[in-house]
Amino acid sequence: MGYNDYNNEDERIQEKLKQKTWNEIRTNDSWAIFKIMSEFVNGYETMARIGPCVSIFGSARTKPEDKYYQLAERIAYKISKAGYGVITGGGPGIMEAGNKGAHRGEGTSVGLNIELPFEQHFNPYIDKDKNLNFDYFFVRKVMFVKYSQGFVVMPGGFGTLDELFEAITLIQTKKIGKFPIILVGTSYWSGLLDWIKNVMIDQQRNANPDDLNLIKLVDTEDEVVEALDNFYKKYNLSPNF
Fold this sequence. Notes:
Blueprint lengths: L2 H15 L4 H29 L2 E5 L9 H15 L4 E3 L5 H11 L4 E6 L16 E4 L2 H10 L1 E6 L4 H15 L8 E4 L1 H18 L11 E4 L2 H14 L7
Parallel strand pairs: 1-2, 1-5, 2-3, 3-4, 5-6, 6-7
Helix pairs in contact: 3-4, 3-8
Enzyme class: hydrolase
GO molecular function: AMP nucleosidase activity
Keywords: Cytokinin biosynthesis, Hydrolase
């Protein structure tokens, strides 16, 4: 991080800490409520026409030559051929791979893009009428979980973990249906799952052992589609597309 970056960061912190009058706070908050409402309304109207899909989460930093990018593309292709639509975060990396695979498989390809200052730009493989832009992470996350029939989680960073644990929490607390959560990459996810089992559950008893049954760990595109199909056969359901 260079001098200018530190300087800009200091300015942002000072701006956040600056005392505002009650009128300023009330005016800013009132306009924010309208903006939040508009994002929800636009998201609901667009996603309701698309119907439920499978969400693919993963890092924006993964390059096209990376094995996980290529695996995510194959997974999305197979998912679309199996009759499922694909939702991603709309950006580069794993998200791009997901939309690319869905596009190649002639399936529904949805992008829920987030406005970020430096990192994110939407990828070219999203269906033109299914590219949504959000300023608020929490509105975007609602769209992911409300319209997903399953969650495929590729290797990623803090954003991917946030989306993973959001999905687990909502299923665990019965706020959404018990949809499959599929982690892809044994070598990547095993350490986290071991910690959850050995420390969070066995040592500290901060979760129910049954909660681990919500998660399936796989390594191939065929295992992902098999897990989705087995889940929906069990409940006599079928893909929406």
